[in-house]
Amino acid sequence: MGVDKIWVLVERADGKVPPAALELLTRARDLATTVEAVAWGPDVAAVAAELGAYGAAAVLDAGDPGDALVGAPVAGAIAAAVALGNGPDAVLIAATYDGRDIAGRLSARLDRPVITNVVGLEADGDGLLSEHGIFGGTQVATARFTGAGPALFVVRPKSFSAEPGGGSEGAPQVRPLPSGDLGSTNTAAIVAHHAEERTGPKLDEADVVVSGGRGLGSADAYAMIDELAKLLGGAPGASRAIVDAGWVPYAYQVGQTGKTVKPTVYLACGISGATQHMVGMKNAKNIIAVNKDQDAPIFTVADLGIVGDVHKVLPKLIEALKARS
Amino acid sequence: MNVAVCVKQIPDPAAPPALDPVTKNLVRTGKLILDDSDSYGVEMALQLAEAAGGGEVTVISMAPGGETSGLRTALAMGAAKAILVSDDALAGSDALATAKVLAAAVRRSGADLVLAATESTDGYTGTTPVQVAELLGLPSVTFAKKVTVDGSSVRVERQTEAGYDEVTCPLPALVTVTAGVVEPRYPSFKGIMAAKSKPLEQLTVADLGIDAGEVGAAGARQVVVDVAAAEARASGEIVVDEGDAHERIVQMLDQLKVI
Ligand SMILES: Cc1cc2nc3c(=O)[nH]c(=O)nc-3n(C[C@H](O)[C@H](O)[C@H](O)COP(=O)(O)OP(=O)(O)OC[C@H]3O[C@@H](n4cnc5c(N)ncnc54)[C@H](O)[C@@H]3O)c2cc1C
């Protein structure tokens, strides 16, 4: 069965444990004899019981980086443990901004490669095989580390489902994971946070996602997407083309460099279906696409494809939904 | 202020990608071009050097076969010089080996600020720049949507899940930029002509003092054991809108009980 020990990195948002960390803990339980969580920031002990309920036998506290970007201090703490011979066989890291920073720094500090874009993990003798999407997720490559551990995996959110289990009675023990010498790598500091206002469900947690692309023709036409999302109790999303064009904030972006979504319904309006977009939404349970080009790639994944003009179909759809409510 | 930009020269993304059936590495044949994602870093570097009142922009790339066409594009945009690391020993390098090579080349350039894209268009491992920073002992700020330099520190608006953070960092430092950080210029005819005579230094791994056994296929510590097509989704029903297609959408939403 897999490896002896896996560490799962837990990056909290507003103190809360995100689904991505629970997904990784759930998967790690089947791959290792011992699973431990690594967390940082204020009051790590507050989430120990929750992490334990998902199988963490211990929680390692990498300290509070304060205003510093977390890449250097968290990687430093893990690398210090590895140097002392207390490291794990594998580290699982969710593919977030900070997760990628930690992974890159850790890889260089340990002089170990890192495998990114992981969408599956399997036990292979006393090691692990990782599956990762390449060419925008159209192909799956299976990879294996050949050198000494720890093996570093950066895993896309929603690759596994999160289920409690494997926990022991009560909250697991919290142990400090002291950082090594960080030199000048730890000098980047956050001076202000800016949150973009959003109402309704979060994009990556919504049951319905309505996304708009360049086919809307103008930033103003995005109002139709907002309205549809509201009528369906869902979240509005976007292709990168209209994020880059400044029509909507980056937080709306779905795809390889944006959010991965898995809603019950994904409604794509005026989106061509570039591989980089599809990698973020093709696992939606149902996909509906509206595009005026019948050869648009998005139709290859759509359960229902409407060949039509968004300016004709969407206003009628909005009226019909309003009439029902 | 001197700025180094790590750029990747990649096969034209418009051409379908392929893997070598034996080595499972990306096949890179034909002319390579400057990765579109890197044109933002080059433009940002030019603007920052100008705003700082001078200094040179050096573009740095690792590529097979002495490939320089992407570097020429960056020189034509206005970069002062280029460093190319090209060596048969580098074939099959993983991201960390690439980072070791780039870090060694950056060290030679004597840059105050190192820029790179958040990820490449063809490989998108997205870890190389931060590995470079760690190898050089530099702080890094990733996912920049705005960059300004103020004397001896860099100020970045860094994308976050919720919006963005304002981050400051003393120089020297490494910053990765997203598409849209600036609008890249097109090389002018004059720029293209001038690029032909700009210095382009070509180096081997030995020139950089790197052991050939540490990089390339020899140094890679991960192997791809299999590549298969991802599970394809069965394509569904196609309806050509004749004025009532919205009704079919409503019907489906109804069936799925989301309305
Ligand atoms: C490294 C990298 C990372 C990337 N990451 C992402 C990512 O995370 N997310 C992402 O989305 N993209 C990403 N991209 C960009 C991606 O390649 C595409 O460029 C982008 O998704 C295209 O957006 P779009 O579908 O809105 O625009 P287009 O490709 O321009 O498509 C517009 C579509 O609208 C249709 N249309 C036009 N008018 C109408 C109308 N009136 N009614 C109906 N349909 C109409 C057209 O037929 C067309 O299919 C990435 C690219 C790179 C290189």
Task: Give me some keywords for this one.
A: 325 residues; alpha/beta; Rossmann fold; 2 domains; five-stranded parallel β-sheet; 24% helix; B: 259 residues; nine-stranded mixed β-sheet; 7 helices; binds flavin-adenine dinucleotide
Query: Can you say what the CATH homologous superfamily of the largest domain in chain A is?
Result: HUPs
Number of domains of chain A: 2
Q: Name the average pLDDT of chain B.
A: 93
Rg of chain B (C-alpha, Å): 22 Å
The CATH class of the largest domain in chain A is identified as Alpha Beta
Give the terminus-to-terminus CA distance of chain B: 58 Å
Q: Can you give the mean pLDDT of chain A?
A: 94
Q: Low-confidence spans of chain A: pLDDT under 50, at least 5 residues?
A: none
pLDDT < 50 stretches of chain B: none
Q: Mind telling me the CATH class of chain B?
A: Alpha Beta
| Class by alpha and beta content of chain A | alpha/beta
Would you report the number of β strands of chain B? 13
Query: Which ligands are bound?
Result: flavin-adenine dinucleotide
Helical element count of chain A? 8
